[in-house]
């Protein structure tokens, strides 16, 4: 794993972070150096994870306490009950459920939609995540939710609106063509401010088509793996917080989520390029490093959560994996059929 990270770093130094060969998909906004910095941070984070993987639990906890002494007093309430009185549905209770985490769902899924840019894949990930929560609820009690909270508020309202807004942003920016002139070429004050804001947007927006009407089985498998790996990445977040007893809103959790979000952005783009462009023969460096991060975090969870994972209901996890693959493949087939139908209609109209 360390060798993979090192080789990715060497290739990145030659061709730019996240591209094993020159490609127009290189991120340039707000500046190429920003994404080089993110790539360096991702390597340092992976090396830090490898170091922690070979330490003991008490040593890691002492490291956390030395930086964040306030966490000494935080303990996970294992006696707290979740998802109780689900039949008691009132407007007041539903309104109280729309807390900061509901806004987190909305913003998070708007961001994911901007990254993935595909309704079918986004909805598949959203639905399969609720199934993931059900499958792992015996290990993480906070995954237990009432049916109306999980499938109405989360999937339909928060996630659904987030996906719609994210795709709306993609459509708007795909239809508009920005002129990325230099600051000195902008004459008015308004134009200068607008140019400054647009500097933090992508230099160009590529229409993303994960599933062509005649896509190969390899691409179908690749999209299915994307859904599975997304679930693992999300699970790592919750297991790390539970095993090392860190509150969701704590600075440590927020910083990790922010770093992972920045790492995922170019990783998704590189994965898409590898899946859809036959000229690209290998994954980008950033995507490889992110894969190493995901699996290293998973190993850390398994090693230090042995007592927790000892309670795992193996048949339930096997069923979860089977459902993940079946739903993912079903989604891919439906999307391909739908895309094929749309292409046929366009041909007939011509």
From TrEMBL:
Membrane topology according to the record: Multi-pass membrane protein
Q: Which portions of the sequence form the region Disordered?
A: 1-26
Give the GO terms filed under biological process for this record.
Answer: phosphatidylserine biosynthetic process
A Pfam match is PSS
Q: Keywords assigned by UniProt?
A: Endoplasmic reticulum, Lipid biosynthesis, Lipid metabolism, Membrane, Phospholipid biosynthesis, Phospholipid metabolism, Transferase, Transmembrane, Transmembrane helix
Pathway(s) this gene product operates in, as recorded in its UniProt entry: Lipid metabolism; Phospholipid metabolism; phosphatidylserine biosynthesis
Does this entry carry the keyword Transferase? yes
**EC numbers for this chain:** 2.7.8.29
Q: Name one GO molecular function term.
A: L-serine-phosphatidylethanolamine phosphatidyltransferase activity
Show the ranges annotated as biased composition (Polar residues). Answer: 1-10
Similarity annotation: Belongs to the phosphatidyl serine synthase family.
User: Known PANTHER family for this protein?
Assistant: PHOSPHATIDYLINOSITOL SYNTHASE, PHOSPHATIDYLSERINE SYNTHASE 1
- Function statement: Catalyzes a base-exchange reaction in which the polar head group of phosphatidylethanolamine (PE) is replaced by L-serine.
**What protein name does the entry list?**
Phosphatidylserine synthase
Q: Which organism is it from?
A: Aceria tosichella
- The gene for this chain is ptdss1
